[in-house]
Design brief:
Layout lengths: L14 E5 L3 H12 L3 E5 L11 E4 L1 H10 L1 H10 L1 E2 L10 E6 L8 H4 L2 E7 L6 E4 H9 L7 E2 L4 E5 L7 E5 L4 E4 L1 E4 L6 H7 L9 E13 H8 L1 H5 L2 E5 L2 E8 L4 E9 L16 E5 H7 L5 H8 L4 E9 L9 E2 L2 E3 L2 H4 L8 H25 L5 H15 L1 H18 L10 H16 L3 H20 L1 H7 L5
Parallel strand pairs: 1-2, 1-12, 2-8, 5-14, 12-20
Antiparallel strand pairs: 3-7, 4-7, 5-6, 9-10, 10-11, 13-16, 13-18, 14-15, 15-16, 17-18, 19-20
Length: 470
């Protein structure tokens, strides 16, 4: 990275480093570029890559993307598959079925009984193939913005007159006014920020595993029927559940089968995650769902003979006590990795990106109007606002995602198999995610920033009038 030196020579110019070139990292980058903030992305791999198969976005997340940069919405729309048989007329209802109980003597009428549906809003559920979405986002990132094979090892705050110094495994260094960690569930930045001995620096095993696969639609549709194959379905049962929805323009069926794993994940250890995947077979999945209804067993039969078993780690047991340290902040899974049972982890990361980009844009405006203000202090104060506004919602997601899994698997104490209570719980939790008050968040960020800015510009006066600003 080419940096101005000394750092405060051009006070209105911000240089931001984004650590991690995944979906949230690139969305954050595009949001910063849209606001004419200089940014460099440091990605540890040799090229862009996304693990996993399907990812879904709600209408709320799409609204945040539009506010960040409309090109992000274009990228999603280029690869998104609306729920339903007719892509021009999406089915906006999510469906939950009893995949377990059935009568062998009357399978046609007893198998996979519909328990309830939930309206998700117009195009409220759109599935994407992760790698395809990343490919689309990359198209809008200018050349020279991303550097590959840059594995961060440490960063140093050299004082308020200097930019942060970043050090990489290859011996190179870089400078930035602010660092945004989008380096995922195994975040190096989180470990540096919170400390190597802090259990909150690492995700922990949730005792759930997921068997994931992409099934060609021309194989799924003849066995399941067009409606079942081309619409999102959640098949519930005791101690496990199975989700599927179409991706890749309806060419593929994304299947995720969740199961309980009582023991420890064998490839992890103390203060480490290790490999989150292990080889698995279709027979292992069939054993999990042995005795379930014909529909679920038919879906399992579509899986490849060999597939991967993904350990589900999250930050539920040891949440990060802060998302910010000085001019460094955590976003997305680096801050609040959740289990996938709400399907909202990426969407909450998009909200983080909007919050950060909004605050840094305000910093840029202030620096251009107030040349005497110290850039480092203003950035720190802006990020403190992010650290107050975002954690309550994102930490709630981590907890609710664990709990909603128990609802799906008939283990939640207050719902059990009372489907009316299950629907009420799922509806309330889903609506809290889907109908988030974006304008309210932006207003709260703006109020918080104004208080912090006043502290920076007139510390003595501001502290008298705004005792709670700190």
């Amino acid at each position: 990275m080419t940096a101005d030196h000394p750092s405060q020579a051009r006070p209105g110019r911000l240089q931001v480093a984004v650590i991690g070139g995944g979906i949230v990292g690139l969305i954050t980058t595009l949001g910063l570029l849209k606001r004419n903030i200089a940014v460099k992305v440091y990605e540890q791999s040799r090229g862009f890559r996304e693990i996993g198969a399907g990812v879904a976005f709600t209408a709320n997340a799409m609204q945040c993307m539009a506010l960040l940069d409309p090109h992000i919405v274009d990228a999603v729309n280029a690869v998104a598959t609306p729920n339903g048989e007719d892509m021009d007329k999406p089915n906006d209802y999510l469906r939950w079925h009893d995949g377990y109980h059935w009568d062998p003597e009357h399978p046609e009428t007893s198998d996979d009984k519909l328990l309830f549906t939930l309206y998700s809003g117009y195009k409220g559920f759109q599935g994407c193939h992760r790698a395809h979405l990343l490919d689309e986002l990359v198209k809008y990132v200018p050349s020279g913005v991303v550097e590959f094979r840059k594995r961060l090892t440490s960063y140093e705050d050299r004082g308020p007159q200097e930019r942060l110094l970043l050090r990489f495994e290859d011996g190179s260094t870089a400078e930035a006014d602010a660092v945004i960690a989008c380096d995922g569930i195994k975040s190096t930045v989180r470990r540096i920020l919170l400390g190597a001995d802090n259990p909150a620096s690492y995700p922990h095993f949730s005792h759930k595993v997921a068997y994931r696969a992409l099934v060609p639609m021309d194989q799924a549709e003849p066995l399941l029927g067009s409606f079942k194959a081309r619409n999102q379905h959640m098949h519930t049962g005791p101690g496990a559940h199975l989700l599927h929805f179409p991706v890749d323009g309806g060419k593929l069926l994304n299947v995720v089968a969740f199961a309980t794993e009582p023991g420890d994940w064998p490839l992890g250890g103390t203060n480490t995650v290790g490999n989150m995947t292990a080889p698995a077979t279709r027979e292992q999945v069939a054993e999990v769902f042995r005795g379930w209804g014909p529909t679920v067993r038919n879906i399992v039969s579509l899986l490849p003979a060999e597939l991967d078993r993904w350990a589900i780690f999250d930050t539920y047991d040891h949440p990060a006590p802060t998302f910010v340290g000085g001019r460094v902040c955590l976003a997305g899974d680096a801050a609040h990795a959740s289990s996938p049972h709400h399907g909202a982890g990426a969407g909450i990361g998009v909200e983080d990106a909007l919050a950060i980009c909004t605050l840094l844009a305000r910093v840029k405006e202030t620096l251009q109007a107030e040349e005497a203000v110290l850039k480092a202090g203003l950035i720190e104060k802006a990020l403190r606002v992010y650290d107050r506004v975002r954690p309550p919602r994102s930490q709630w997601l981590v907890q609710s995602s664990r709990e909603v899994c128990d609802i799906y698997e008939w283990n939640y104490p207050s719902t059990g198999t009372d489907w009316d209570k299950c629907l009420a719980e799922i509806t309330a939790r889903s609506h809290k995610l889907w109908y988030f008050d974006i304008a309210g968040m932006l207003a709260e960020l703006d109020r918080g920033y104004e208080k912090m800015k006043n502290l920076q510009l007139a510390p003595e006066v501001a502290s008298d009038h705004h005792p709670s600003a700190e």
